[in-house]
Request: fold
Amino acid sequence: MIQAVQIKKLAQNYFLRIKEVRRHLHANPELSFQEYKTSEFIQKQLEGAGIEFTTGHVKTGIIALIKGKNPGKKTILLRGDMDALPIEEKNRVEYCSKNKGIMHACGHDVHSACALGAAFILNELKNEFEGTVKIVFQPGEEVLPGGASLMIKEGLLENPKVDKAIALHVFPSMETRKVGFRSGMYMASTDELYLTVNGKGGHAAMVNEYVNPLLIASEILLEVNKRFMSKDALKGSKGENIPTVVAFGKIEGKGATNVVPDQVEIEGTMRTMNEEWRKEIHLQLKSIVKEISTKYKIDSDLRIEHGYPFLVNDEKFTQSCIKNAQEFLGQENVEELPLRMTAEDFAFITQKVPSCFFRLGTGNKEKGITSGVHTATFDIDENALEIGMGLMASLCIQELDSF
Reply:
């Protein structure tokens, strides 16, 4: 039976290599579904280690296989996403982004590096465990429809059939050496909202000759906020409280100080944790828009882009992973996580197979590494890489050994 000390030793041995991998990925970020050079780089790393893989999945995706003894016994999937964000990096580090306006500000360079490190460790131990590990390097996590959903449609969870799935995500508010888990419901579904309000434009001084779409849009936004952002409103069909967010972050009316525009365009997000309630919110939002538009005798259009489902961690599997993490890192380094209204396309996988999505502490207050994800100064304490790849490998082997 493989011991934790073996995995820790291998993680330690691979640390410097994986740190360089992460730095290369960080310095050469690519946007969602454009990760061609990222994919080529990871392929070279896999080739160098003699790990079997296929590529071209949703264009840039990679699926690697590590077959232990009796490979058909069980298959565990490990996921690392590859895409970056359209953010101009402000860090002054040697591995700063070379691609203007693009940055690994959500830690996907870390995720891919940890998945690759776990692959190296598992490849060294493949003669000591039974089953198969499927490692996916996934494109397009940051934008709809999500690379995970597209890879599933292409057969990600088949041939060999995936029995369980594991993924991690950086967590800058948690100190390095710590990790966090939550059983059951963890992250929200997400939909994108695009509202167009059509009024009648004109000279701002001629108040009787125009219908101001800015005012109508404001009324719609206030009603939405009243309806969905109060505690009393967030009740499901059985009266239960359901975490919900309906928020608008962009409004554009191309008028001027003395020009009322014909049209206002608004963009927002909708998040919740219940599919029936999600459908009900869609209906209510459309009803609000219709009622207020009818009141002012104008036309409006609400387009809802259906996004990621909620992310749910399988309770039995996650509890097993928590126990393993406590043994691997020490009980004091494993924390329970609260619900989050953020979203993640690994949710598509959690809806299909029992899964565990956990958080990897990457912060270090003493080093000044405290910036959050999606910011221009996000960075990590690179010591987290050793923890991430080691724990991913350990969780995987534990599950394979349990059968």
